[in-house]
Amino acid sequence: MPTVGLAARLFGAPPVAPAQTLLRRLTGDLQGPRGTSTLAVLAVSLSRSDAVGAMLELPDSMLVNTALLERLTGTLHADDYLALAGPDEVWIVLQALTSPTVASLAATNIARALEAPFQAGTLTVTMRPCIGIAVTAVSPGTALGLLEAASEARKRAGSLNRLYVVATETEGIDLHHKDLIVAVTRALAENRLTMAYQPKVDLATQRVVSVEALIRWPADLVPVISPMVLVEIAERFGMIEALTRHVLHTVLREHATLLAPTGLQRIWINLSAGMLADPGLPEFLQQGLDIWSAGPPLIGLEITESAVIGDIEQSIAMMHALTTRGFELAIDDFGTGYSSLAYLRRFPISELKIDKMFVQHMTSSDTDARLVRTIIDLAHNFKLKVVAEGVEDAATLELLAQMDCDQIQGYVYAKPMPAAELVRWMANFHVGIA
Q1: Do residue 196 and residue 322 come from a single domain?
Q2: The pTM is what?
Q3: Mean pLDDT of 328-345
Q4: What does the alpha-carbon distance between residue 66 and residue 79 come to, in Å, rounded to a whole number?
Q5: Based on the domain organization, do 408 and 315 belong to the same domain?
């Protein structure tokens, strides 16, 4: 059995159950008391080199299935359980998790356990997992709801070429619903979308050095659409360029008319995978800057790991093209991608943002705290600044300061706010600071 890493939970072998038995047991677990612990469901799809043999249930392929389940059970806790839902899919239930982060670590650990080829009789079989994760904290609270959310997340992981995706509020929402598409089209056409800005505070100077620009749906427009759903609809239905143009020009206009006197060094905007893959992106951004007489150093570009690793070589080439133009780049949601360490040295970036899923539980989870410390040390070894997002309380802030985190973004300082409110907030925040 391969050596397993940080997320290994080697406390015995969990039972392998038929799919219907797993569903019944999961229903019972969700109805029982769990305290503050988290339960997670993983839908693991396997791309295997003996796919035909597996479907025909040939003897050697059955031996591979047995070896597969042995490897999987070796990575799980004794109270966890799993089912072979088909020749190329496994369902896994993780119980009593101290943090949602552990489910993501378990997914990475599963991939490591399956790296070595399987040998069974005349067969040498390789497998590549694609995993969807649903946790009780963010997904529907029924057994079927969790399985469906995990399945949808798995499909999204496949389309993004990611090892795993954690289910979000978009899972279970019919994004093809006509009302949603019409609403987004109308909001863009009527220029109804607004921006909110959340400060990034430098811990050494206690000054706001930059802000992240976040898109907001108008409160009076029905149906109400969250920013996450808004961006996903824009990506799926060919509106992401229009949405990015709206964000860029709104940010530049509000900087020119309101924010310039604050002395902000940089305003960060988020780039989607679709925009990163567009060869015309550098010129698209430059045209916006030229209209508002601004330079590239004003705009920082936050790129999620999932956007980068879809086509890694093309992404790296585009990132170099952007930095050549003078744009600063950051990797957002760092720690959620599978290929982070392998490619980090090749990314022309200036900072890393630690995903809030690690930050928000670090005072109660030693695992999360160790991960955050590791990411900070890693980034500093690469001469990168580190931003912790999702910081909501003084205890987390103090722990991050002890770990030498560079910048903080979160409710502990300020919520996202409109530009005019940001100007007033910054003036008050900097009172008495040299």
Answers
A1: yes
A2: 0.71
A3: 72
A4: 20
A5: yes
The first and second tokens of residue 198, run together, are 């959340």
Domain containing 421: what range? Answer: 178-429
* Radius of gyration, alpha carbons of the chain: 23
Query: Which residues fall within 8 angstroms of residue 407, CB to CB, at 6 or more apart?
Result: 200, 201, 202, 203, 209, 351, 385, 386, 387, 388
The answer to whether 95 and 79 are in contact (CB under 8 A) is yes
Residue from 341, 333, 307 nearest 159 by CA:
307
DSSP-based three-state secondary structure for 255:
helix
Pair of tokens at residue 259: 């924010």
Quick one: tokens of 297?
């150093």
3-state helix, strand, coil in the chain (%, to 5): 45, 20, 35
Q: What is the 3-state secondary structure (H, E, C) of 366-405?
A: HHHHHHHHHHHHHHHHCCCEEEEECCCCHHHHHHHHHCCC
The CA distance from 362 to 261, in Å, is 36
**Contact by Cβ (8 Å): 74, 92:** no
CA distances from 164 to 76, 190, 281, 305 (A): 17, 37, 27, 12
One-letter-per-residue 3-state SS of 331-356: EEEECCCCCHHHHHCCCCCCEEEECH
76 plus 209 within the same structural domain: no
C-alpha to C-alpha distances, 93 to 14, 172, 268, nearest whole angstrom: 10, 19, 38
Strand partners, 16: 82
| 197 located within any domain | yes
End of a domain among 166, 189, 217? 166
How many C-beta atoms lie closer than 10 Å to residue 182's C-beta?
11
> What's the CATH code of the domain at 49?
3.30.70.270
Final residue of a structural domain among 166, 196, 229: 166
Q: Chain-wide mean pLDDT for the chain?
A: 84
CB-based contact 387:349 (threshold 8 Å): no
DSSP 257: I
Give the number of C-alpha atoms closer than 13 A to the C-alpha of residue 7, restricted to the C-beta side: 20
pLDDT tens per residue across span 399-421: 999 999 999 999 999 999 999 99
pLDDT at 170: 61
Distance (Å, rounded) from C-alpha 82 to C-alpha 91? 5
Q: What is the Cα–Cα distance from 286 to 316, expressed in whole angstroms?
A: 19
